[in-house]
Amino acid sequence: MRADGMGGRRRGGGVVGWRVLLVALGVVALAACAPVRQRPSVAPRPSSPAMIHFHGSAMFSTRMALPPGATLSVSLLQTNARGTRMLAQAGGMPASNSPVPFSFDVPRTLLQPGYDYALSASITDAHGRALWVQATPAPVDRTVADESVTLWLVRAVEPPRPATVVTAPIRRGPAYVVAEGREPQWSARIYGLGATRSMRTSIGHDDPLLQRYARVKRQRLNSGVVVYTTADGFISLTISPGTCRTHGSKKVLAWRAVLETPAASYRGCARGFP
Fold it and tell me: What PANTHER family does the annotation carry (predicted)?
């Protein structure tokens, strides 16, 4: 009787155990069939159906850093057969080097059917003078909620400014870097070292703006490239290694040179010790 009782309890316990196991397996199967929620790697930008988000970069082709205080402005233009008008403008965006990012929103109600729309950008210095402008506005689609645009800028042609007045003494003596080119005739000479470093530039014969002494800062880039930039950021001289021969000369030099101004770039050769 005792043995049967114990055996009965074993059999009862075995039935209960199998039931628990079957229930557990069922729960696991249901969990495997349930959808798995994945966390996105980057949270999407919240969008509003009432707004259109414009973003992208303004590009300009130069290594020369923009002067302190330079800013980017981007305008939304509306055009049709009767003309062009500006609908909105985002300004005051800091600009230092290319590319310059921009981002702004406008109400969708501003963009109506029957018109074409485009973005136009410009970069000005701290005094409001144009440095870079967009020659051709970039078309945009009024039907999208998020528009990414690349804006290509060209140099703005400004009237000559008065020559920079240099109050600190300029070091005299031989220049340790001489860069020059032709078509038109131009030259740039670097004098001094450290805080006393200066540059004498000359382009053509009639432009007093580009015939001057000015303090310059020296920056060494990769691959032996050296850039001299005036304190106001108006002119830069880039010296890079590479064989070079000026027009009409048989002498081969070891450095290439590019003199950049807001109006144009001038290429030539250099000699000395950049």
Answer: GLYCOPROTEIN/POLYSACCHARIDE METABOLISM (PTHR38013), GLYCOPROTEIN_POLYSACCHARIDE METABOLISM (PTHR38013:SF1)
